[in-house]
Write a structure and sequence with these properties.
Number of strands: 10
Distance between the termini: 31 Å
Radius of gyration: 18 Å
Structural class: alpha/beta
Largest sheet: 6 strands, mixed
Shape: globular
Strand order of the largest sheet: 6-7-8-3-9-10
Oligomer: single chain
């Protein structure tokens, strides 16, 4: 699904914020992306959703080298990717329903199917009674649930979620993680960026750990052993 080979990224003329990044994500995998603040998680997510191009190295997505792609080709590839941003990025002039429906309307999904799918998903995330409201009338946690619903409504091949449960209480957070797991079982490759150690322990997926701009992969059996030995 994704392969990063010797990736480096810098902004302007400063030092690289990411350097020598090498990893691959298999189709249908579920990974956590974690590490201390300032380690480069957001920058790595931007590369994965094609919001930036690397300073050096090779990125392959969906079997295609992204280097040299036209804007149109990148746009087509982005239609396969769902993204949950920390800042939500809801459209303020659209209702909750229309925000969630937007990815389906872009792909010209029949309106009856849009109505059924969006209403069902909004009920599932506990926002069925808020579908006609504007984003500004919702709490931060409710806006986050709208953003998550919008990201998953079209069943993307790749879902990237930046702190998706950060503004949610534990009950709703676990419920939404279960939704992501269900989506993963249906074939979507998922990367969740998080600082939530308890959630990562509860949902035992491999971890992509960024430290000072460099990355290593930790499989579940490794962190379970480290926890027993008192590392965590």
């Amino acid at each position: 699904m994704i392969r990063f080979e010797n990736i480096g990224l810098r902004y302007g003329v400063g030092d690289e914020v990411l350097r020598d990044i090498n990893f691959k994500l298999e189709r249908g995998s579920f990974n956590f992306l974690t590490g201390p603040s300032g380690a480069g998680k957001t920058s790595l997510m931007r590369l994965m959703y094609l919001g930036r191009t690397p300073t050096r190295g090779l990125i392959t997505m969906f079997g295609k080298n992204i280097n040299g792609m036209t804007r149109s080709e990148i746009g087509m590839m982005r239609q396969k990717i769902g993204v949950v941003f920390q800042e939500f990025r809801l459209l303020p002039h659209l209702s909750v329903f229309d925000n969630v429906a937007l990815p389906l309307r872009i792909t010209e999904t029949p309106e009856k199917e849009i109505q059924n799918n969006v209403n069902e998903l909004l009920d599932w995330v506990g926002l069925g009674d808020h579908k006609d409201q504007l984003p500004e009338t919702l709490s931060g946690g409710q806006q986050q649930r709208v953003a998550i619903a919008r990201a998953v409504i079209a069943r993307p091949k790749l879902l990237l979620a930046d702190e998706p449960t950060g503004n949610l209480d534990d009950t709703i957070g676990v419920r939404l993680m279960n939704l992501l797991e269900q989506l993963n079982r249906m074939g979507t490759t998922i990367v969740v960026a998080t600082h939530n150690q308890g959630m990562m322990n509860q949902f035992g997926h491999p971890r992509l750990i960024l430290e000072q701009g460099q990355l290593h992969v930790q499989e579940p059996q490794t962190w379970i052993r480290d926890k027993i030995e008192g590392v965590y």
